[in-house]
Amino acid sequence: MRKLITLSFAILLSVACMGQEKLTLKSRVVDSKTRNDVPGVTVQLLSSDSTVIESLVANNHWTRDDQEGYSSIFQFDVPRHKANYIIRASFLGYKTSYVNISIGELKRREYLRELPPIMLRPDSKMLQEVSVVGSKVKFYYKGDTVVYNADAFVLAEGSMLDALVRQMPGVEIKKDGRIYHNGQFVENLLLNGKDFFRGNQEVMLENLPSYTVKQIKIYNKYGKNSEFLGQKRQDDKTYVMDVNLKKDYSIGLLANMEGGAGTNDRYLGRLFAMRYTDHSRITFYGNINNLNDNRKPGRDSDWNPVDMPKGDNKEKLGGFDYAVSDRNQKFDINGNVQVSHSNQKLITNTDRVNFLQKGNTFDYERQRETLKNFNLTTNNQLYLVFNKKANLLLQPSFQYHKFDNYSNYISGTFSSMQYGVNRELLDNIYAVGSEQIIRQSLINRYKKERLGKGHQLKGSLSAVSTIKLKGSDDYINLIGQISYDKRKEDLFNKYAINYGDEQQMQTYGNQYFKNHPDRNWLYQIGAAYNFRLSQAVELSMYYGYSHRDKKRHSSLYLLDQLDEEEENSSTIGWLPSVTEYERTKDRSNSYVSQYTEDAHSIIPSITWDKDTEHGNWSAQAKLGIIPTRQKLAYQRGEADTTIVRNTVLLTLPFTRLSYWVKDHTKGFQLLFKATPKLPDLLNMVNIQDATDPMNVKEGNNGLKNEMAYDVNLIFNSINIAKQRSQSLRMGYTYRANALAMGYSYDANTGVRRYRADNVNGNWNAYVAYNYEQPLDKMKRLTFGTWTRMEYANSVDLIGKSEGSNYQAIRSSVQTMLLDQTLKLNYKVGSSSTMGVKVSAAWRNINGKTMDFDHINAVDFNYGATASFNLPWHIQVGTDLTMYSRRGYEGSNMNTNDLLWNARISYTMLKGKLTWMLDGFDILGNMNNITRMVNAQGRTETFVNALPRYAILHVAYHFNMKPKKH
What we know:
This protein is mainly β. The chain is 5% helix and 61% strand. It is globular.
């Protein structure tokens, strides 16, 4: 790897000497009265005799309606010698402005000269507004930005932003809410170019009405530091999705209210209100519901029964977001506060077959849970600029989490398959009159009742400052961060275990874990010097120091040692006086641990960025050298251990080579990184933890560092005229010395013994291709295909043992996946659509040294969606899909589920009021049993899911604009 690093740096450095060096003249065009940018202004560079040298449009991110999030920054490259120039700026509605520029003596490494803003004075002779009517295209490119036209998509009445985003070609919303565009992860979701509930993009996706959106842009956004330095900093770049509101909603008050009630006591309430000006914004939102479901009838998505929401969940959440920016760009402040409370009741029944070398075992688990959670979070940001020579970014955050979780669990493990196992049978399996034949194959019965209560406090403050150095393009970065985390947990655990055909209880416990005080500290400081070697090449050297301190107390009290009558009559969570329960402390399983980590980070980097006649080449490489000292002081009973571990981590956190053609319609990226991972020192302590008698943990002091290598190659291509979008992605990952938690299984008792260890051989590779294009000249019929092929080699440690010895052997599993989806959508008129979809995922699983059958199965679904606008302001949306499974062992796993959802809506009061009637799982075929198969076993899980229901809800849209004077 050292040779590869040296070669990469040498190549990039050699490129620095190529080509004639230029001086970049950079400025912006602003309104002389408001000091706002004037996007779209024509700027020309003239010689001293008024000959036009170069002409451009000053518009980094194109728009003609909104100014938020866009700048009129422009730049010209001129020879690095003395000369005189004229800059001419002109725009409709403004008087043409001329500025004389004189290039005098240049500093030795001065490649950039920032000019004062060019002022445009409004012209009193204003032209009348002109309306242009043209065909609506779904997307187009403007510079390096892909722009989606919201009005070109057909959406159901009452749709929110997420419905629009899901229809955009090349865009995918994953099941966990992450957004991808042509395979690239979208790091941030913006509103008019600014952060909006940063860190929780679901707020905007699920609450911003789609009718307010004019267009959505996806681009690499350069941050405050790039703007401050006047450079496109590669380390200050974020891939963003920017939602631009229509002009009617850019200034004024916007509100959206919705409420509804349905069968099975379903309800929902929603409020979204936003006050917006050109330099400020404040937003409030609230949501209360017990739907636990985000499906919308008539919408095409990648949902399938495996993603069915679990449990009966009542949720309340709300918050507000604010943003204020200075017209002269001297400060910017924004932030948000969010509050949520959830109460979830969950019933889970799991039947599992464990594939073992010397015969399978069969688990039947029945669990009921009540999970209550309260969260309060706030994230804020303050950005300041001092005399254009230094800036400061402060980011304070705070989080409070309170939890109260209860579970009641019972399970039985058998040596042979059982039928009709329910909670009652397991509870009474030793009762008089129960079937003796069932107990003959019983390995163990495990009953457990748990209650966990507590809270957690988190707070952090980070500061970043950039200081320009006079006479060059060099600058210094200073960073600092401090964070504190405090957690308190009281955990109660009652359990009873019977082994085999023994009616008398063999193992019983009533435990109280006092897991506090528990606190974490982290602080770090760092500095980087950035040196411009040439116009194309920049070098950087960073040094940072971080200190982490974690301290945890865990005291175990054996409440079953109290007076038998008093202990038996107590409920879970009950505690006697401190004096009484202190007598029951289990010192051999109580511990105090303090972990400290000191790390010095030395990170040199090189960046190369070169514009050519046909496009742009860019490359970046970073090398991390991180000497790290870990120390763990651990006391548990008579064991008093101190582990000190010194290591030097070598990492390539980010290596990239990319090329884009000049109009950004074609390009590729090659990405590589090597990431080390330190083992948890707690797993290296030579102790045995049997506080859970069915899951015993052991230490392993021979653990090594893990290293993960990732390489990805991405090709993207867009044809604007044909509205065609396609991408090809390939990737490979290898984990050396992967940290795994292996286990051995005692078939006589059902006890698992776990131990962390290093294994080699874990790798996976994939190739994926996406293609979307209209098939007809009118661009009404659109075809899309999504193909993914993946191969994974998974290595783990698993074995079968007897007694207290850990015996695990290497086990490898090979999985082949081929996933194919085809879609065909047709636009009927201007406001109706229909579509069909076919999707199939084939899996082939082989395992070595494991006693299980070869798996060759396919999950597939096919169906149709439709959305029609009817007369009298009525709209109907529906989707009908058959979900099928084939190739699994056992007829109960090869299923067909036909699901039908529908919505009918009626709009009145000029579109302000919308009535909606939704029906989910109208045919009643929703299967709340999911089945999964892998090399370790076959699992069938039942959950109490949301039953089929209908709900009537009404939405009211309100918009108030300021009065014109």
